[in-house]
Amino acid sequence: LCFWIRKPAALTGLGWWLNVRRATPTRLQAFPALGSDVTEAEMGRFSLDAKRCFHGDARQMRYYVPPPAEGPSPGFDLRDGYRDRYVQRDDSVREGLDHLLQWIVENRKQLQTEDKGKLLNADFVTWRGHLTKVLTTPYESREGWLLAVTLFRGTLYISEFETEAARREREQRSEMLKELTYMGYKFEQYMCADTPDGIPDPTGVVNTNEAFCTVIRSRLGSHSLLFSGEVDCTDPRSPSPQPPSCYVELKTSKVMHSPAQRRSFYRHKIIKWWAQSFLPGVSRIVAGYRGPDGSVVGLETFETMKIFKLIRDDRGCWKPAVCMNFCAAFLAFLKTVVTEDNPKLVHLFAWNPGHPVSYTVHQDSQYRFLPDWYVEALSA
Ligand code: A3P
Ligand code: MG
Ligand code: MG
Fold first, then answer.
1. What confidence score (pLDDT) does residue 351 get?
2. C-beta 181 within 6 A of ligand 1
3. Minimal CA–CA distance to 162: which of 151, 174, 149, 148?
4. 98-106 and 372-379 helices cross at what angle (nearest 10)?
5. Closest CA to ligand 1's atom 19
6. Partners of 295 in the beta sheet?
7. pLDDT tens digit string along 174-184?
8. 208: Cβ below 6 Å to ligand 1?
9. Residue 26 to residues 74, 116, 221, 247, 353: CA-CA distances in angstroms?
């Protein structure tokens, strides 16, 4: 797979298009040594508390406590507490980039450059989750995306808007899916303690307002990125104690019984896990495998940088270099399209599986996402 950018003469109203197509070997050589083009450094941390309030510190950090390796299966019941100990974040509230922008305002001195035209020392500011979606676009066949982009004082800000299809899916989510979502969070509670020497407390409440976020500076090809992502926990006994490599991503997945199920997991699911953790440099992903009754029947640890070895012999599988090339090219494309520096101007990029990327331009509209308080704080 690869992409190219062209300007279709017949569709000038939509502007430039971006296509996802078959790879050429030359493209794949753009990133010869995997990882050598991406280097991550943690710039800061922030937390969102039980009421979703921002704090510029690591108070919501949790600590990885795996169950004993020997002995019976851990006996986690992922359904426990769904009815009576679950506080759910209101996911109809659009938060945009606000929490990250708040962190930037509080830390702007360490991000500023000498360059007059460019206030922050980054080409792009966004959430890690938005970049994950771009990275996996060449292999995505189900869900499209809408990404709003604004150029402000030399930096491109990317903020996702919910597609109509995603909104419908969210509003009509079945009880079974809601419980599955809960089970992902419940697994985190079984695997994490609140202090480095503590033990997990599965009798507590699962509150999805709470989050610990890392802010990462990184490069992808020629692009400098500043992004934030939620981190599940840190391993106080990690062989690589520096963040972000001491961070651990926790995941749940249905237990697999056959090689065909495992191949499908590698083809369709682990790509998302890889993209999510690869971007910020989270080095380990710990999977809890769910049995039909909601208990955890096994655990497996994946090293993020070794995931490519699991898939490289399957010719029909995804390739990390294709994802990275696509992402780098999409970011380059944004630089060529969004050139007017204006916090009220939004270029809205839309993509749906099987279609090219298109964009529309919106001046001072419902898509505006850089708040006045941010523009004023950075203009002062
Ligand atoms: P699982 O990942 O075990 O499924 P994250 O893994 O990113 O830390 O997210 C924690 C949990 O949030 C997930 O657990 C899942 O339950 C829920 N979650 C994350 N992204 C989601 C999405 N796009 N839709 C529904 N639930 C999601
Ligand atoms: Mg998480
Ligand atoms: Mg997780």
1. 98
2. yes
3. 148
4. 20
5. 181
6. 77
7. 999 999 999 99
8. no
9. 47, 37, 15, 34, 25
pLDDT digits (tens, 9 = 90+) for 74-103: 889 999 999 999 999 999 999 999 999 999
Nearest one of 90, 100, 95, 103 to 51, comparing CA atoms:
90
Does the structure show a pLDDT above 70 at 33?
A: no
Q: Is the pLDDT of residue 24 over 90?
A: no
Closest CA to 236 of 84, 63, 58: 63
Rg (CA), the chain: 21
Distance CA 245, CA 281 (A): 6
CA angle 271–274–277, rounded 5-degree value: 150
Quote the CA–CA distance of 334 and 339 in Å, as a whole number. 9
How far apart are alpha carbons 245 and 238 in whole angstroms? 8
Structure tokens at 379: 């203009």
Rounded to the nearest angstrom, the distance between the alpha carbon of 374 and the centre of ligand 1 is 29
Give the ipTM of the model, two decimals please.
0.97
**pLDDT score of 19 more than 70:** no
pTM for the full predicted model: 0.92
- Ligand 1 atom nearest to CA at 288: 3
Residue 21, token pair as written in the block: 């197509």
Amino acid identity of 344? K
Task: Say if ligand 1 is within 6 A of residue 229 CB.
Answer: no
3-state secondary structure of 138: helix
Atom 26 of ligand 1: nearest residue by CA position:
181
- Assess whether the C-beta atom of 347 lies below 6 angstroms from ligand 1: no
- The answer on pLDDT for 370 being more than 70 is yes
Q: What are residue 7's phi and psi, to 5 degrees?
A: -110, 105
pLDDT in tens, 235-252: 999 999 999 999 999 999
Atom of ligand 1 nearest to the CA of 208: 12
Contact predicate 278/318, CB 8 Å:
no
pLDDT-derived band at 23, boundaries 50, 70, 90: very low
Backbone angles phi, psi at 304, to 5 degrees: -50, -45
Look at residues 223, 214, 212 and name the one whose alpha carbon lies nearest to residue 42: 214
